[in-house]
Design brief:
Layout lengths: L1 E5 L4 E6 L2 E6 L2 E6 L5 E5 L2 E6 L5 E6 L2 E6 L2 E6 L1
Parallel strand pairs: 1-9
Antiparallel strand pairs: 1-2, 3-4, 3-6, 5-8, 6-7, 8-9
Length: 78
């Protein structure tokens, strides 16, 4: 799936991922390839990114929003 993670200052990530684990208001949730459409609010925490080769990386966020539509994920973070 195509993923963009954008802060007010810069693009933090842009590329293809296998999965994303995000800190939602009601707890962590995971987005996988071909996920159903979704809009949600994020709280402070870490976003876990897993690429197609199963390499993991993390991005610290203070909050934000996520939109999933047609296998494209846009995440706006602070």
């Amino acid at each position: 799936m195509k993923v963009e993670i954008i802060s007010p200052d810069k693009v933090l990530f842009e590329g293809d991922l296998k999965s994303i684990v995000l800190p939602g208001i009601d707890g962590f949730f995971e987005i996988l390839d071909h996920h159903a459409p979704l809009v949600s609010v994020l709280k402070e925490g870490k976003i876990k990114l897993t690429d197609p080769k199963k390499k993991e990386s993390f991005i610290d966020v203070k909050g934000g929003v996520i939109e999933v539509l047609e296998n494209h994920v846009k995440i706006l973070v602070e």
